[in-house]
Amino acid sequence: MRKLLTEIALVAFLVLSLFLLVLRVYQQNHVVRDSTEKVQQQQQNTKNDNQKINLKTILKEQNKTLDQQYKAIASEIEDFRSSEKFQKIKEKKALKTEKFTSKCTIAYTLEKPLPKPRIIQQKEKEEPVKKIQKSLPLVAIIMDDVSSKWQAKLIKKLPFPITPSIFPATYDHPNTPEIAKMFQHYMVHTPMEAYHFPSPEENTLHVDDSLKTIDMRIKNIKKDFPHLIAINNHTGSMFTSDYESMDKLFCVLKKYHIRFVDSRTSAQTKGTKMGKIFHTKVLERNVFLDNIDDEDAILDKLKETVSYAKKNHLAIAICHPKESTFQALMHAKNILHGVEVVTIDKLY
């Protein structure tokens, strides 16, 4: 009997020992698993944080580069402000009635003769005029100074269409033709002479440039950017205010079938007047969005753009690839309610 009780006690002890061993192993595995999951979660969080930091760093780097450019180069906004004093001087010298005769030679500007106008015969019975439904006011937002793929990628992530205006290919911007291929609709941001510019872009068009020089520059732009919608001026307060310079430019633009969007860096710009002389539609900027580098200020300017569009059925706004601008545009969908945001090509 004693022997049987001893054996039972031994078996019970072995079972208890085995249970305690299994329990200990389970607890160790559970601790290890929790520790592993915690480490993995920390790694994932760190990875996500790094991605956020990297994007923020990239934006800061882009913004820093742009800030440096704006300190060295008269941007459209700075050009517009600095040109005011020169405009006042010019206004005193200007005649009350401006008359200008274009010196453009059609034989030079056109590779092919102008087509003869078609004569449309009036039908005997006129068809009833269909009532056109009122469409929403249109807003086109142009982002100037585009010169990097990161800027292009950020533009494509915005919740509505933006028309990028890309710098021509130069030593400082060698890859811009490749960037243009990322977009279906784009413009070329062509540097033109300002009244005050400490460090102009390479190949800036100057008022004393010959017709041949301007032709060569525009021809290269057309070659590098064959599908451009139009060009608009980077700076250019002096160039766009000069009849002779704009006559040469429009002469060449007509040759290469390129349209002009006036950034209006000068109140004395001759853009629309040249459009009438050359019988071509010239669009012009109505609002600068980011003349104050602040998200709330940019959103206020967007509200101003929408208000302008509702009064005039169209508004064209210009902005730049700054961090605050991207942040504002990401949060602007509600502000743009009641208007249709379109790319520039839709306005032609």
Structure at a glance:
With 348 residues, the protein is of the alpha/beta class. Helix content is 49%, strand content 12%. The protein has two domains: 1-72; 74-109 and 136-347, TIM Barrel, CATH 3.20.20.370.
Question: What descriptors fit this protein?
Answer:
elongated; TIM Barrel; 12% strand; 11 helices; nine-stranded parallel β-sheet; alpha/beta
Describe this structure as you would to a colleague.
This protein folds into two domains: 72 residues; 248 residues, Glycoside hydrolase/deacetylase (TIM Barrel, Alpha-Beta Barrel). With 348 residues, it is of the alpha/beta class. The chain contains eleven helices and nine strands. About 9% of the residues have low confidence. Strands 1, 2, 3, 4, 5, 6, 7, 8 and 9 form a nine-stranded parallel β-sheet that branches. Helix content is 49%, strand content 12%.
CATH topology of the largest domain: TIM Barrel
Chain-averaged pLDDT: 81
Helix percent reads 40-55%
CATH class of the largest domain: Alpha Beta
For the termini, the CA-CA separation is: 109 Å
CATH superfamily of the largest domain: Glycoside hydrolase/deacetylase
Sequence of secondary-structure elements: HHHEHEHEHEHHEHEEHEHE
Radius of gyration: 32 Å
Question: What does the secondary structure layout of this molecule look like, with pairings?
Answer:
Layout: H1 2-72, H2 76-93, H3 106-109, E1 138-146, H4 149-156, E2 163-166, H5 176-180, E3 187-192, H6 211-224, E4 230-235, H7 237-240, H8 243-255, E5 259-262, H9 271-277, E6 283-284, E7 287-288, H10 295-312, E8 314-319, H11 323-330, E9 340-342
Parallel strand pairs: 1-2, 1-8, 1-9, 2-3, 3-4, 4-5, 5-6, 7-8
